Each structure stands twice: as structure tokens, then as C-alpha cells.
Amino acid sequence: MLYFELIGIPGAGKSTLMKSLMSSNFKLRGTRCLSSDEALIIALKSRKDQLLFQWALSLIPLRIAKKHTNGILNLYKHQNDLLGSFLAKHRKIIDILSNYMQCNRIPNDEKSLVISRFFFFLGYYQAVDEKFDSNTPVFFDSAFLQRSMSIFISPQTAVGKLYYRDIETYLNAVPLPAVAVFVDSDIDICHRRLLARPRGMTKRMSGLDDSGTRLFLTACRELFQMIIEILEKKGIRVIRIQNSDALTTALDHLSKSFSDFSALHR
């Protein structure tokens, strides 16, 4: 697949922006772009190793299935095979993840949650990557770049110093996108958006007071600035989108940036 990723601090609006982009039937080089959730459902339906599962999945409308991808993947009996296939190509990630998580100050219960979710995503990514060739654009809003936030920063402890070397080592061990989109917004705007969300604060941020929330968001931005610097050194294009104003403004900017990307890579 041709992998793209939207990244941003909590409340920046990356998921909302991606939903708007996908709902517009956005195309790159004439090929309709897929969200990672849609790509996963298509990938699981096409597999021939659990026929009853694939038959049941074919009966679920795509718009509904896309909202329950984690639960659907959990029902797939060969999930461990997908994980094994990914780790066969990216073995270093196990040592990097375990060593860093042991050394930092993330609470043990949070470490277990972060690791289990990360390894679950590896199977998710592998299923999509196996299905689609390099001409099919697939957009993620929570892949290897965004998930680094859970590995390197904990909202429940004092925010420690971020080490460029550790982040670079991690990025050298995981698949990287063809293009990263950094969706940014003012810290206070992000905070207000988080408070206004119908489902409330994210689970990891629950219990933080206003000061703790702003401290955490600031640390997340610092992390993404380091990631962007490393990506650009590697020659990976980073599109910066300011999403403090109207969503349509950010969407127009993003569409224009990708039109330029398509023109350059024909």
C-alpha cells in the first residue's frame, strides 16, 4: 500500500479532518484513497483462511463495519499469524519497545495497555499491507507516528525529557509513511475541543486538571516536532496543516497539498 498518516496532538482535529477528506472520495493519481478502517475490512473480507468469518463479515454494511474494526479483528482467529508476519520483517521493534518501556516512568498498568494495543495494531497494519499494492493510497490517523505518543509520553506522570536518539531509533525500526500530515492547533483550542467531546477526555488523559492537560499537550507537540525533524532528514515529506479556524480551510489546504504531491510523483 501507499501509506499516509495524519498526526497531531489530542484535540487538534486530525480524525475529523481525515473523515472529511475520506467522505469527499478524495483521489491521488486517479485512485480513490481509503481510510485504514475501510482498508482493513476489505482486507479481512478477501482472505480465505476463515470462511465462516468472511461470510459473516460480508453481511455487515461497510459503514457499520468501519466503526467496529477493532472488535472485528479480535474475532479473526489468525490475528497472531498477521502479527508474526509483521515481526518477521521488523524484529527490532520488540527490543526497542521493551527496553524503552522498562526504562521510562510510565506506570506498570499503563505499560501493559500501551504494549497490548501496539501489538494489536501491528496485526492490523499487516493485514492492510498484505492486501494492497503500492498504488493504493491508505490513510491512517493512528499508526506508527501517532502511537509513539503513548510510548514516549505518559499523562499520568511528570513529563520527562524527550531524547532525540530514542525517537530516531524507534522510527528506524517501524514502517514510515510516504507523507505525514501534521495537524496543528493552539493548545487552548485543543483543550476546549477535548472538554467538549461527547465521549469526554481520552482514557489516558482522564483525571488530569487543566494545568496537567496543557503540560501533556505541550509535551506531545514537542514529540511531534522531533518526529517531523527526523522524517524530513530522511527525505519524507511532511505537510503542516493549521486547524485552529474553520474545518473547510484546513481541508482545502490539505487537498491542495496532496494535489501538488500527485503532480510531483506522476
Written description of the protein model:
There is one protein chain. With 266 residues, the chain is of the alpha/beta class. The chain has helices spanning 14-23, 36-46, 51-58, 62-65, 69-74, 79-89, 92-103, 108-131, 144-152, 164-173, 187-196, 210-233, 247-264, and strands spanning 2-7, 27-28, 31-32, 34-35, 137-140, 179-184, 237-242. The protein has a single domain, classed as P-loop containing nucleotide triphosphate hydrolases (Rossmann fold), CATH 3.40.50.300. A 5-stranded parallel β-sheet has the order 4-5-1-6-7, with helices on both faces. Strands 2-3 form a two-stranded antiparallel sheet. Helix 6 packs across helix 8 (108-131), helix 7 packs antiparallel against helix 10 and helix 9 (144-152) packs across helix 12 (210-233). The two termini are 16 Å apart. 30% of the residues are buried. The mean pLDDT is 87.
